[in-house]
Amino acid sequence: MDDRVLLFDGIGQDFPSPGQRSQIRVLDGISFEAARGKFIAVIGPSGCGKSTLLQMAAGLLLPTRGAVHHRGRKVTSINTEVGFVPQQAQLLPWKTLGENVELPLVLRGVPAQERQKRVDDVLRSVGLTGFEQHFPSQLSGGMQKRGSIARTLVYRPDVILMDEPFGALDAQTRMVMQSDLQTLSMEAGATVIFVTHDITEAVLLADNVVVLSQRPSRLLANIPIDLSRPRNMFEPFKNPGFAAAYDAVWTEFRSQLQAGQIH
Amino acid sequence: MREVAPRSSLASAGGGLGAIGEKALQWLVKLLPGVALLIFWQWASGRLIKEIYVSKPTAVVARLYELFSSGEIYPHLWITGQELVLGYVIGVAGGVLAGYSLGRSSRLARIFEPYVMAFYGIPKIALAPLFIIWFGIGIGSKVALASIMVFFLVFYNVFAGVRSVDRELVNLTLIMGANQRQLTYHVFLPAAAPFVMLGMRLAIPYSVIGVIVGEFTSSVQGLGLFIHEASSTYDPAGVFAGIVILLGFVTVANLIAGAIERRLLRWRTLSGSGPIDA
Ligand SMILES: Nc1ncnc2c1ncn2[C@@H]1O[C@H](COP(=O)(O)OP(=O)(O)OP(=O)(O)O)[C@@H](O)[C@H]1O
Ligand SMILES: [Mg+2]
After folding, report:
1. How many CB atoms lie within 10 A of CB B219?
2. DSSP of B81-144, one letter per residue?
3. Whose CA is nearest to atom 30 of ligand 1?
4. Is the pTM here over 0.90, yes or no?
5. Contact between A138 and B178 using a beta-carbon 8 Å cutoff
6. 3-class secondary structure per residue, B51-83
7. Burial B126-142 (b: 16+ CB within 10 A, else e)
C-alpha cells in the first residue's frame, strides 16, 4: 500500500489582486509529501502562501494548478478526513468545552455512549479533565488551544493540519504545548502538517522541514531532521545534532530574509 | 504542566443575607427616582400647573380602578392585545426568516438587499392611512402596521448577525463533518441568537407605536382609540390611565424577552463578554 498519506503535487495558485486586472502568483509549483505518521513542518516568509496550502489540503480551496492527493484520492471538495487546528483556538463560544470537543462526533453520528468515553479520554490526554462545563471564555488561551487540539484528536483524522497553532501563546506555554504535541502526535500516530514562522519550533517538532521562498513561492528545500525522539523542547541545544539541523534550515531561510522585505 | 481541576467554577453564586440586603437596596435606589417623580407630580398638579392639563397620580389610579371595575376597558384591551401579539409575532417571524435566508445566501442578498434598505428608510408611520384603506378600520390594518415596523428591525439585526459569523468557524465545522442542516443548528443559529434577541427587544416598543398610531388614525375599538377619545374630551386622567396600561404591556413583554434571552444566551452572560442589554 502507498505510504504517502498526503501529497502536494505541483501546486500553483494565482489570486486576483484587488484593483488590478492581473493576478498575483502566490504559489508556484510546490511539491512535497507526507508519509504515514510523519510530522512535516512548513516554514516560509509571511504571505508566501502557507495557510493557502493548508486550505487546499482541507478542500476549502482548489489550486489553480496541480492537485493535493489524500490517500491517493484527489481533494476536490471539503475534506472531512483531515483535522484542522487554526491559529486562534476557534472553539464555538456558545458551547461548553465538553460540547465543543464532542461536536465532531455528534456531526459524524457517533453513538452517545461512545462519544462520552472518547471525549473523556481525549480531555484527559490534553490535561483538561474537570473543565467540561466551562465555556471557552472561561478558559485561558493555552487551555483553549488544548481544547482546539482535543476537538481534532477526538475524531482521529489521519492527517492533522495546524496553522501556526502556538503563535499567539507566551513562550512558556508554548514550550509546554510543543512538548505535549510531540507526545500526542506520537501516541496518535497521526500525520501532521505544521505551519510555523519559528525555525526552532520547526526543527524540534518535525521529521521534515519544508522551506518556502518569498512570493511567488517555490519550494526551497525539504530538509529531513534526524534527531532522536522524544526531543527536549525546553532546552533545544541539549538535543544532540540540534545545532546542525537548525543551521541547515537557517541557511535556506536566511537567503529569503536577504532577498526581500519582510511583510 | 497539566491544569488542575477547577475550584468552585464561576464567581461564587452570591448567597447569604448580605447579598439579599444588597439586592433590596439596589431595588430601592432604582425605585427612588420614580417615586420622587410621582410625588412631585402629585404636589405640582393644581399648584404649578392646572390639573385639567396634567391630572394627578391619585386621579389616574382612581380612573384605572373605575375602568377595570366597570369593565369598560376590557374590549379595548382585548383588541389592542390581539393586534400587538399578532403584529409582533408576524413581524418577528418574517424578519427572522427573511434575515436568515438573505444572510446565508449572498446571491439572494445581492438581489434583495438594496430593496430592503430602501424600504427600511421609509417612515412606516406614514403608511398608516394607506393601510387603513387597504386593510380596513378593523384589526387588520393595525397588525399590518405593527408587523411591518417589527419586521424591518428584526430583519436588519438577523441579517447582520448571520453575516457576521466568522468564515473560519464555518469552514472548521464543515471539516469536522457538518452538513448544511447541522451547520445551521450548531453554528448559524446560535451565532445569530444575540442579534435575534436584540432585534426582538428593540421591536417591542415599535409594535406598540405601530398599533397605537393605527388606532389613532382610524379604528372602532382599542386602547389607542380610548386614549384619543379621552384626550378629545379633556380627560387627562383617562389619557394617563391608557398610557399606564400600555406601559404594563411593554414591561411584561420586556420581562418575557429578558427571561428568554437569559436562557438562550447563557454563554454570554456567563462569559461577561459585555452587557447584553443593548
Ligand atoms: N482569497 C484570497 N484572495 C486574494 N488573495 C489571497 C487570498 N487568500 C490569500 N491571498 C494572498 O495570498 C498570499 C498568501 O496568503 P497566506 O495566508 O497563505 O500566507 P501565509 O504564508 O499563511 O502568511 P502568514 O505567515 O502571514 O500567515 C497573500 O499575499 C494573500 O494576500
Ligand atoms: Mg498564514
Report:
1. 26
2. HHHHHHHHHHHHHHHHHHHHHHHH-HHHHHHHHHHHHHHHTS-GGGGHHHHHHHH-SSHHHHHH
3. A47
4. no
5. no
6. HHHHCCHHHHHHHHHHHHHHCCCHHHHHHHHHH
7. ebbeebbeebebebbbb
Nearest to A90 among B6, B168, B177 (CB): B168
Please report the ipTM that was assigned to this predicted complex: 0.89
Angle at B276 between CA B244 and CA B187, to 5 degrees: 125
Shortest CA distance from B5: residue in chain A: A130
Contact: B271, A135; criterion CB under 8 Å: yes
Q: Which residue of A has its CA nearest to B192?
A: A94
Is A46 near ligand 1, meaning CB less than 6 Å away?
yes
Of the options 3.40.50.720, 3.30.465.60, 1.10.760.10, 3.40.50.300, the CATH number for the domain spanning A4-81+158-262: 3.40.50.300
Cite the residue boundaries of each domain of chain A with CATH code 3.40.50.300: 4-81+158-262
Q: What CATH architecture does domain B57-270 belong to?
A: Orthogonal Bundle (1.10)
Query: What string of pLDDT tens digits covers the 278 residues of chain B?
Result: 444 444 444 444 445 667 788 888 999 998 999 999 999 999 998 888 888 888 888 989 999 999 899 988 899 999 999 999 999 999 999 999 999 988 888 888 888 888 888 888 888 888 888 888 999 888 899 999 999 999 998 998 889 888 888 899 999 999 999 999 999 999 998 988 888 888 888 899 999 999 999 998 888 888 889 999 998 988 889 999 999 999 999 999 999 988 888 888 877 765 544 444 43
pLDDT digits (tens, 9 = 90+) for A202-259: 999 999 999 999 888 899 989 999 988 889 889 988 889 899 999 999 998 888 776 5
